[in-house]
Amino acid sequence: MGEFTLGEQRGPNAFEIADHPSNSRIAQTFNVDQLRHSNIDHSRLQPAPSPPPIRVVPQSGATPSVEYEVEDILDWRQDQKGAIKFQVKWVGLNKPEDIIWEKQQAFTGAKEALSNFICRPENAELAHLLRWPHSTIVAETQPVGKGKKSRPKGQPPSRRSSRIQAMAANP
After folding, report:
1. Which domains are assigned to the chain?
2. Fewer C-beta within 10 Å: the chain N or C terminus?
């Protein structure tokens, strides 16, 4: 049943339930033989339940793939084979054993968090090892208008572009 508060005593073995809902189908008065003390220790904090995964992908003949949201990437390391792994903290999972090491391939849905971690100044060595594109680091500092030069109207196309156009016309 649930928890309730005993109200008035109605007889030697009968008690009324004080917080009995009016729409309930059970009797408001109980015999003490039907009641028992709660075994729940309310003095201790109960751990919060783990958050549900973002996505569960069923796989035929294997355990389903479960994805959680990345809260932060804490550190990185390179193993003996040269593979780079990242220490990940997941949203809502606060136990020390929930902080695990993941390979770069595991960050399919968290590329922004991975990019932000790699682009930190203290991770320059990591960016170099991964050959991380400089455009993600310096993209905000480049002035608008720089980049590929356009040719003025009326000018003939370059030799390379005229060759490409000729190849496309004569397959």
Report:
1. 1-38 (no CATH), 67-138 (2.40.50.40)
2. C
